[in-house]
Amino acid sequence: MTQYYALPKFSLNRSRPSIKVLITLFLIGTLLATWLSVYTLHHRTGLTVRGVVQYYLGNEGVVGAAEILFPKSSGEMLEFFHIHAFTLLLLMFILCHFVALTTVSEARKIMNFTLTFLSWLGMMVFPWGVRFGASPSRWAGAALCSGFVFLAVTAVGSAAVLWEVWISPLGDAKALGDPEDGPDL
Q1: Each residue of 129-166: pLDDT tens digit?
Q2: Cα–Cα distance for residue pair 185/181, rounded to 1 Å
Q3: Which pTM value belongs to this model?
Q4: Other C-beta atoms within 10 Å of 99: how many?
Q5: What is the per-residue burial (b if ≥16 Cβ within 10 Å, else e) of 149-172?
Q6: Run of H or E including 115
Q7: Domain boundaries, the chain
Q8: Which residues neighbour 14 within 8 Å (Cβ) at sequence distance 6 or greater?
Q9: Residue 182 CB contacts under 8 Å (≥ 6 apart), including other chains
C-alpha cells in the first residue's frame, strides 16, 4: 500500500475502479464488523458501567439476573485479548493507511491515528482493571469510553476514505493506470 506514496499524482479518487471497489468493500465489512461488536457488547452489558462490571466480575449474588455470570478467569481474559489485540491492530493499521492516503490535513491524520491507538490501548487495558483492579466502575467507564472513541474514529476514518474515493472534487480526473500516467498499479 505504501508504494502509492511514491506516485506524485496518486489520489484515492483517481484509483482504478477495481481498487475503489476493493477499498469500499473493505470499509463496508469493517463498519459491519464494528456494528456487530457494538451489538454484541450491548447484548452482554447493555452498554452500561454496571453491565460491564457484571460481565467481568460476575453476578452470582444478583437477585433476578437473567443469566448467571461467573468472574472471568485470567485464562479467559488472556485468550480474548490475545485475539482482539492482534486483529484490531491489523484493522487499525489498514484503515489508518487508507486515511493517510486522503487529502485530510496532516494534523487531523495524526490526531486520528493517535486517538485510534489510544482507544485500542484502552480497550486492551481497562477491562483488566475492571476484573482485577480497585474501583471496577471507574475502569468500566473508561473501557466503555475507549470503545466509543474507537467506534467514532473508525466511522470518521471510513467516511473520510469513502469521501475521497467516490465524492471528492477530483472525481473528473483521469484514473491512474492510463498509459500516459506511467506504470499500471
Answers
A1: 999 999 999 999 999 999 999 999 999 999 999 999 99
A2: 10
A3: 0.82
A4: 21
A5: bbbebbebbbebbbebbeebeeee
A6: helix 106-132
A7: 17-57+70-170
A8: 170, 173, 174, 175, 176
A9: 7
